[in-house]
Amino acid sequence: MLDKSVAVLQAVAVAPCSLVELCERTALPRATAHRLAMGLETHRLLTRNAGGQWCPGPALAELAAPVHDTVREAALLVLPRLREITGESVQIYRREGSERICVAALEPPTGLRDTVPVGSRLPMTAGSGARVLLAWSDSATQRALLAGSGITERSLAEVRRRGWAQSVGEREPGVASVSAPVRDGSGEVIAAISVSGPIDRMGRRPGIRWAADLLAAAEAMHKRLSPSRR
């Protein structure tokens, strides 16, 4: 059974596939392929895209993360300076399906803070980090996640125009945040970098205060993720 499960993972790794395509690639009976794929999906080793096809799941990346995660490595070099400048909590988020996961975070040494532990899963429907990740997502993902949320396509267009997002009491009462996109070496947005803290300190327009420093930190991460730096 292990060999068959590995065959399913290898087949999906080639390209997203339907059940019919999975059977063709693995030569497994339909019932067996379906059972194995469903089991792997339950354990998040497989997931499904907007078209219902199976794709490699987030658990694969999580298992590999301790080995080599370039985003986390870059974050650990950039976040300390951003925390020092702002005196607030700083985080890096990546989107996984309908959620965003915190892959790196640092807290200020003293005072009230917005604690988001690494590994925390937050909704993609609230908060500046969600707005940034949504703003640079494909249109199908945007339509699926915007339904029923307080985020509009117009507001996402504004995020793309100015290059950052802010939120006040949106994800959690009393908390404000600012986020900016993190790009890889090819320019693709792969994460969001955020500063968050109590509204009393951050203010009701936190972007005015911290957007420039946040964009500088995002650019520092981009440079570290560029091929010339590796």
From TrEMBL:
Q: Which Pfam families match?
A: HTH_IclR, IclR_C
Q: Which domain of life is it from?
A: Bacteria
Annotated InterPro entries:
GAF-like_dom_sf (IPR029016), HTH_MetabolicPath_Reg (IPR050707), Tscrpt_reg_IclR_C (IPR014757), Tscrpt_reg_IclR_N (IPR005471), WH-like_DNA-bd_sf (IPR036388), WH_DNA-bd_sf (IPR036390)
For the IclR-ED domain, which residue ranges apply? 59-227
- Could you tell me the keywords of this UniProt record? DNA-binding, Transcription, Transcription regulation
Q: PANTHER family annotated for this entry?
A: HELIX-TURN-HELIX TRANSCRIPTIONAL REGULATOR, ICLR FAMILY, TRANSCRIPTIONAL REGULATORY PROTEIN
Per its record, how is this protein called by name? Answer: IclR family transcriptional regulator
The source organism is Gordonia jinhuaensis
